[in-house]
Amino acid sequence: MAAPRRSQSPFRDASETTPLLGDGLEVDTEASTLIGTATPTVRSGAGTPGPGTPGDDARPEDVKPNKPLPKLQIFLLCYARMTEPIAFFCIFPFIAQMVQENGHLPTSDVGFYSGLIESLFSATQMLVLISWGRLADRIGRKPILVITLVGTAVGPALFGMAKTLPQMILFRCLAGVFSGSSLVIRTMISEHSTPETQARAFSWFAFAGNLGLFIGPIIGGVLANPATQYPGSFGKNKFFLEYPYALPGFVTGVISATSALTSALFLKETLKKRGTDELSHREITSSKPPLSTWQLLKAPGVSIVLWVYGHAMFLAFAFTAIMPVVLYTPVDMGGVEFDSFKISMYMAVQGASQAMWLVLAFPALQHRFAVVAVIGPGVSMAFTGVQLAVNDVAPDSHVLGTLNAVALTLSSGIRSIVPGAATAIYAVGVRGQILWGHLAWVILIPLAAAFAVACEYLPEGRRPKDDEENDENES
């Protein structure tokens, strides 16, 4: 007997190019507004036709030509994608030491201020993401991408030269203001791809993000305080003696600057202009009114998916914020007592393993078992799987962008609060030696267990088409 299927949504043309604010599609409106997912928008049956691809009943004019991916364009966009996680994570190996030196703080207070500074990036990002998206829809993807990449180059360079805590806070906020590149990159990759090539394109998008997670800590750990780490080369350099954390910021800035330059010279604009006939017949003639945000949140399955999404982000951001402080804290206070180099190596290996797992193992597991089954077992799969669950539960094509925007805003909001709160709790535990300095971990354990329980209430994701056909044949 055939396994029960999840009812299919009435739409068949939802994609990464659905408008951000869900305003619907009209003649002569600008197409392909940015949306706010943090990972590829791939249906549960990645690699097989599904609700996100044209079906047998689609009009001929609705089907995009099956053209190969423009490799140079995808490569440049993936290179640009690396810059944001590099800029975000390059400070993690030395942030605790930098805070202690600039603020003249006791070791027990380092965690609180480290988490605060880490969180400011996401807090400012949350405030400007939709504005960057609207600007990109108005004046084009390419100019906004170049502007944000230039800002990403300047922010870390200034942060590395900060000598006081207020300066560190200011420059970290500046980096967050210009962190809108991933929105533009995601949309440009979608507009360069077809339904047949989109899954592969976004797998490289995800890989580039994890590669940035791998490279960022290496830059921060290997290049921080060069006068001490490499006295033969930098020991007499007055500049690096005065600014021991400037070199990682400069290198990060150079990477972002080269990406801005190559994007300006070689990337093609993908925004469709008004008055063109590039919009599909289905999009132009669609008259279904869009759901409001409140109606969307009340749609079947949406609230629980967003809850699980937020829960996964909470656990991931808490762990990411606490780990550098734990690795830096002395052993007798409950930490590991690594230096900056060892911290960077640990974080680099962690990022590399996640990147390879997502490229080599996750697609096959997700295709075989669907999204719900792969969210619980591992952190990296949960982080990606909840993104796919968000897209599976969208009730209508015209609100897919709004749903993703709500999810990304939720993610940014959590990332702006949780790291500071998590490191503050860790600092309280270390200062008072509560549970031998392990208070934060004891709190996270039941929260992680609750996540596994919440996953049981997720709606069943869309199954791969070939699996459904096999079940039908067996019946």
Automatic annotation (TrEMBL):
Query: GO terms for CC?
Result: membrane
Q: SUPFAM superfamilies given for it?
A: MFS general substrate transporter
Where does the protein end up? Membrane
Q: Where is this region: Disordered?
A: 1-65
Q: Where does this chain mainly localize?
A: membrane
Cell membrane listed as a keyword: no
Q: Where are the transmembrane segments?
A: 74-99, 111-132, 144-162, 168-189, 201-225, 245-267, 304-331, 343-362, 369-390, 439-458
Matches recorded under InterPro entries = MFS, MFS_dom, MFS_trans_sf, Tet-R_TetA/multi-R_MdtG-like
Q: What GO MF annotations does this protein's record show?
A: transmembrane transporter activity
From start to end residue, where is composition biased (Basic and acidic residues)? 56-65
Q: Which Pfam families match?
A: MFS_1
Coiled-coil ranges per UniProt: none
Cite the entry's keywords alphabetically: Glycoprotein, Membrane, Transmembrane, Transmembrane helix, Transport
Domain (Major facilitator superfamily (MFS) profile): residue spans on this chain: 73-475
Q: Give the source's domain of life in one word.
A: Eukaryota
What membrane topology does the UniProt entry give? Multi-pass membrane protein
Keyword Glycoprotein present in the record's keywords: the answer is: yes
- List the PROSITE patterns hit by this protein, alphabetically: MFS
Compositional bias segments (type: Polar residues): 1-10, 30-42
Task: Spell out the protein name for this chain.
Answer: Major facilitator superfamily (MFS) profile domain-containing protein
